[in-house]
Structure formats: C-alpha cells, structure tokens
C-alpha cells in the first residue's frame, strides 16, 4: 500500500467494508475492503467483471452504503458535492447545450451566472471543446460527449473525481487522446481521482497506484505502485518497463478473470 508522505492526508479511508446486496438471492459483492487513498492521488481499480469495482466506487461517493465497515472522507468541499462522478455513458444532459452542461454543478451550488459561465468556458477550453459551447450533445461525437462529462466533473470544483470506465465506450484512437487529456487536466488540478477500468494499459498510463481486485466477492488482491513519474508522457507505453509491468499485472489478474468466468 502507498505510504503517504508525512504531510499528506488521506482523502478516503476505507476500513473493513463489506457489501451484501439483499434480494431473492444474496450477492456478496465486497469482502473486507481496506484502502487508504492519499489526497491528490490518482488510483485505478482493475478486476474481473462483477468483482465489485463499481460498487466500491459508489460507496466512496456515497451513492451506495456499505453493509458493514466505515468510509472516512477528508474532503474539503464547502457548498459543493465532495465527489463528482463520470460514468461510461449517459453522463450529459441532452436538453442542455455544452456550456449549460459544464456549468451545471456550479449552477446547482448557487454560483452566480457570470462566475459559473467563466469557469465553464475555462474547462470547455481545457477539454478542447472551444467553439462548441452552444452545441447540444446529439450534435457531437461520442468522444466529445465524454469530454463534456469530464469538463463538467472538473468544473464542479469537487475535490474528488470518481470515474467508472469513463473512456470505455470510445474507439481506440479517441481513447488514447482522451487518456492524454485526462492526465493533463489532473496534473493541473491534482484532485483525488479514483478510476475504474478494464484496461491494464490505461491503469498504468494514468494511475499512481493500481488496486487489483479478486473475483467476487471482491477483495483487494494487491495494490501496485506505478513507478512512472509525473508529468507523465504516454510514450512510456513503448518502454520495456511498461511491457513488463503490464505482463505482471495480467499474470495475476488472469486467475481472477478465470475464476469469475467459472462462478458467473
Ligand atoms: N443494486 C444491486 N442489486 C443487486 N446486486 C447488485 C447490485 N449492484 C451490483 N450488484 C451485483 O454486485 C456484484 C458487483 O457488481 P459491480 O457492478 O460492482 O461489479 P463490477 O466489478 O463493477 O462489474 P463490471 O466490471 O462488469 O462493470 C455483481 O454480482 C452485481 O450483479
């Protein structure tokens, strides 16, 4: 587990969290999760399908409650949500234009029109969407719609960003560009980011640490420190060190994916 430097704080401290979904059949989704996430860190969660990655993210963001255990949040957010979410799809309001979508969080927080418009324009520019302020989501590509969702999450001012496969629906080239953009935005702001992904490459390109989960019931199998520095160039993907880490993670994950297929 990553040791926080003496002056760093933990944004999230997860202790002995279990999650059981009750119903006609009980689903044991999470089993004894313990995790400390340093403020300003970028954590990627990987694991087989159904292992509880989204459930853990939702518990971090208070969209779901743990059956037992505690989550402590040390997030300074006055008058705004502590966490902003980005989901794989359906993350934008189709009836709002780009500017209204990006300004939405601050609108809800009661920020004045002039100020929130100024902030929204800033994040629209950073997300490479200048010139599209008046466009509606259906007039834009899937990649551009995801950029609206990411710009909106940054524009909320929330200290934590919780992202569930935010780039999962994009084609390979758009995804690579978006990974670069996401790293650049995060390096400017240093929010605490937790990103769920099925891609080991993406986790290595973006994260400071990778939380690897086991097949259901999801446990933390391993926490891997990513050794690549910041600012991070996507060119690391071509290095032997990157290839070796990717192989090592896959060797460990393969057993879990096989287990999840056996029991699903
Ligand atoms: N609201 C719910 N009610 C009942 N079961 C649920 C609910 N939400 C999730 N589950 C179950 O909990 C388990 C974990 O689900 P979760 O979506 O967290 O997994 P995941 O790792 O994010 O999966 P994937 O990678 O396929 O998106 C699954 O078996 C899922 O069916």
TrEMBL record:
<keyword id="KW-0813">Transport</keyword>
<dbReference type="InterPro" id="IPR050166">
    <property type="entry name" value="ABC_transporter_ATP-bind"/>
</dbReference>
<dbReference type="InterPro" id="IPR003593">
    <property type="entry name" value="AAA+_ATPase"/>
</dbReference>
<dbReference type="GO" id="GO:0005524">
    <property type="term" value="F:ATP binding"/>
</dbReference>
<feature type="domain" description="ABC transporter">
    <location>
        <begin position="12"/>
        <end position="236"/>
    </location>
</feature>
<protein>
    <submittedName>
        <fullName>ABC transporter ATP-binding protein</fullName>
    </submittedName>
</protein>
<dbReference type="Pfam" id="PF00005">
    <property type="entry name" value="ABC_tran"/>
</dbReference>
<dbReference type="InterPro" id="IPR027417">
    <property type="entry name" value="P-loop_NTPase"/>
</dbReference>
<dbReference type="InterPro" id="IPR017871">
    <property type="entry name" value="ABC_transporter-like_CS"/>
</dbReference>
<keyword id="KW-0067">ATP-binding</keyword>
<keyword id="KW-0547">Nucleotide-binding</keyword>
<dbReference type="InterPro" id="IPR003439">
    <property type="entry name" value="ABC_transporter-like_ATP-bd"/>
</dbReference>
């Amino acid at each position: 587990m990553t040791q926080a430097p003496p002056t760093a704080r933990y944004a999230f401290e997860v202790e002995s969290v279990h999650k059981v979904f009750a119903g006609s059949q009980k689903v044991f989704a999470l089993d004894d999760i313990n995790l400390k996430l340093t403020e300003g860190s970028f954590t990627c969660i990987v694991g087989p399908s159904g292992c509880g990655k989204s459930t853990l993210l939702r518990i971090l963001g208070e969209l779901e409650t743990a059956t037992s255990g505690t989550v402590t949040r040390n997030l300074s957010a006055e008058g705004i949500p502590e966490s902003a979410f980005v989901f794989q799809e359906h993350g934008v309001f189709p009836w709002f234009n780009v500017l209204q979508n990006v300004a939405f969080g601050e609108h809800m927080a009661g920020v004045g029109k002039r100020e929130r418009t100024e902030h929204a324009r800033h994040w629209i520019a950073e997300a490479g969407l200048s010139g599209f302020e008046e466009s509606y989501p259906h007039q834009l590509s899937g990649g551009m719609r995801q950029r609206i969702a990411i710009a909106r999450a940054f524009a909320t001012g929330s200290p934590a960003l919780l992202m569930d496969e935010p780039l999962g629906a994009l084609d390979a080239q758009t995804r690579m560009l978006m990974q670069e953009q996401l790293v650049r935005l995060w390096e400017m702001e240093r929010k605490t980011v937790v990103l769920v992904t099925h891609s080991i490459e993406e986790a290595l390109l973006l994260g400071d640490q990778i939380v690897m989960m086991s097949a259901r019931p999801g446990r933390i199998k391993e926490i891997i420190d990513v050794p690549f520095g910041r600012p991070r160039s996507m060119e690391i993907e071509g290095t032997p060190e990157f290839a070796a880490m990717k192989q090592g993670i896959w060797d460990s994950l393969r057993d879990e994916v096989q287990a999840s297929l056996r029991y699903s």
